[in-house]
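As described in the Methods, two query proteins were run sequentially through the folding procedure within a single session, without resetting any intermediate state between them. The first query and its resulting structure tokens are shown here.
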Amino acid sequence: MNEIKFAQLDTQQLKKINELEEKIGVTLVAYDPSSTPSQGSGAFESNNSTTTNHPS
């Protein structure tokens, strides 16, 4: 099983995450995409730079 790791964010990226958290009122978590399984691992799947929400 792959270990999912947190992304290493630069100052600009962290600032944007903090702004979005305040704007939408949730806590966001950034993961390192190279550490996440590529198929069938969650509710979202990346495809040609778009994100699709799979029905549960």
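Immediately afterward, the second query was submitted; its sequence and tokens are:
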Amino acid sequence: MPPPRTRGTALRHRLAELRGPDVPAKALDARALAALAANPGCKRRAILDGAGVNKAALASALGSPSVFGQSQFAFTRGNAFEAKVKADGGAELLRLVHEKLDRTAEPPAHARVPELAAIGPEGRTARTALALREATEAHGEWTLLDHPMLALDVAGSPAFLEPDAVVVHPDGSWTVVEIKSFPMLDGSADPAKVGAAARQAAVYVLALEQIAARLGDSAPAPRVRHRILLVCPKDFSNLPTASAVDVRKQRAVTARQLARLTRIEDIADTLPAGTCFSLELPAADLTAAVESVPATYAPECLSACELAFHCRARSRASGAVTSLGRSVRAELGGLTTVEDVLSAARGESGDPDDPAVAALRRAARLRAEALGRDAQDLGRDAQDAQTLAREAPGQEAAAPGPEAVAPCR
């Protein structure tokens, strides 16, 4: 007899049915997880990521292909730079860790680089945890874990993550290393790219903290450092340089947002029977399946989600105010569509005691007054031009130039 199906195996079976028959799951990496945590109210992304659906292929099948992602040239360049940083057993990488994060320790003359190969992500995760335990117990030695595999529980489903490297210091503490191919000019890099790297590293820190907590059952838990090492090319060369980045803020925000995510099994239970996101379905059926899961679109999704163009088109078609941005949506209170906003501004609907409605009507009055004054000013300018033309015979009347137009008030 087959073994009884537990809640975990039942969920995995349900997610496999959502992907489609014989469709392999797409791994949820730290970059996607950070983007998911930035929009925890989007159930569509949560269920698609949890089921391992390839959202880029799904967007193309829906007729809204995505341009989100890394170019092949940047991918190749990044791999070449990472190989250079980790050459010679990671000697240069460990030198940067010692210089930027742990100068009180002995310089890393040599380091242990354990083998982390295993079968499947679960096997690699277990092998990584064992290597971390052994490295922590080997006091006084440096250890470099090259592409370890970490597991993080996300809304009731495990996500397997693969950081560039994790370094175990001689005192037993752990440091996440992020290797990026964007340059660091005069000791500083693009703040937007550094912020994205920090959010990605914060996910790894959370996963390491879970491993450290489990290792701490029989001994003091190892310390996961909240200052990660960001390694980038120096200026316009291919030489590595590094900077220590404090990710405590990003870690706290990511942990809070992940805790707010609706559990994946709860979302799956609300879907109609037979829902499937297989790319082999007809376009109409696939669109209906995607639309059966509510989405929370915001302009920030354009830089973080492959389905952003599809969701934006749907949001605009329905007149949802979320397409204007989260800050605007927060200011409008219970007004959820653009038509509701315009109707309230015109005084046709809405509670006058509602602060949002009162603000809209006041703004509409100020706009009408400003446009009325500008129209009067333009009329006076045109009359003055005609008077000057009549007083200067033989000269053609010229249309008032930009300097004659009254500024907006």
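Strands lie at 111-112, 142-146, 150-154, 157-161, 165-168, 174-179, 227-233, 240-246. We note this only descriptively and draw no conclusion about the first query from it.
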